[in-house]
Amino acid sequence: MTEPIITTDNLHLFYGKKEALKGIDLSFQERGITALIGPSGCGKSTYLRCLNRMNDLIDDVTITGNVMFRDQNIYAPDTDVVALRKEVGMVFQQPNPFPFSIYENVIYGLRLAGVKDKQKLDEAVERSLRQAAVWDEVKDDLQKNALELSGGQQQRVCIARVLAVSPSVLLLDEPTSALDPVSSHVIEETLLQLRYDYTIITVTHNLQQASRIADRTAFFLQGELIETNDTKKIFMAPEKQETQDYISGRFG
Ligand SMILES: Nc1ncnc2c1ncn2[C@@H]1O[C@H](COP(=O)(O)OP(=O)(O)OP(=O)(O)O)[C@@H](O)[C@H]1O
């Protein structure tokens, strides 16, 4: 096995005095999809947000333990958080395009990074929209306001916006839960293609979705990681009783 791309080691997180993550040891190999599952409030989103320091934006959060991205401890004081979030990008539950054109949405990060070369920007737009499987639907009207697209198209433009800055890791927080079944299916198919090139970590409430798309699955309960394994094993032969109870619908 190669070195993991992300490792968390004894990761604890407190919101004020409330401990939301209770010492999570988990690592992710490069490429492929890992699903984070578990009942509401178990800490999935909190954990995901630790991986690119999104919890920094929340008041009164205390984090201890290590989060390594390759050989870099991302909570080290000298971490360049903007550079980190370029490498470890995030897509949220609600599609959140900016209120301007599809083109400008996709190149947003590149503009921030100072890229001005029109040909480079055009290439990045086409590459990213193709990878996000929305190019054919929008290529004739890239100047259209992204807010005029359907929810599913908006979400794929948001994925393209993250891909445009060439990340290594994609974090997705319930990326389909605000979408209709057809759009959700298209996003799932898109992720199944992207898994060959990117390390994808997705939070999902939808166990069928986890079993359809994830190579590996991690089950969280009350701030603890109960079990992680190949998805087939988690669903067919979990090692822990709590996992069995959860996937068979006994709680959550
Ligand atoms: N900003 C916050 N301030 C205080 N407590 C929070 C905050 N965000 C989450 N929590 C608490 O931390 C715990 C874990 O929440 P988190 O959102 O990570 O769970 P989750 O498993 O993603 O839940 P869901 O599936 O409902 O989104 C919960 O008890 C939640 O109430």
UniProtKB/TrEMBL annotation:
Pfam families: ABC_tran. One of its GO terms (cellular component) is membrane. Keywords: ATP-binding, Nucleotide-binding, Phosphate transport, Transport. InterPro entries: AAA+_ATPase, ABC_transporter-like_ATP-bd, ABC_transporter-like_CS, P-loop_NTPase, PstB-like. This is Phosphate import ATP-binding protein PstB 2. The lineage of its organism: Bacteria, Bacillati, Bacillota, Bacilli, Lactobacillales. GO terms for biological process: phosphate ion transmembrane transport. The keyword Transport applies. It comes from the Bacteria. GO terms for molecular function: ATP binding; ATP hydrolysis activity; phosphate transmembrane transporter activity. Residues 6-247 form the ABC transporter domain. The gene is pstB2. CDD domains: ABC_PstB_phosphate_transporter (cd03260).
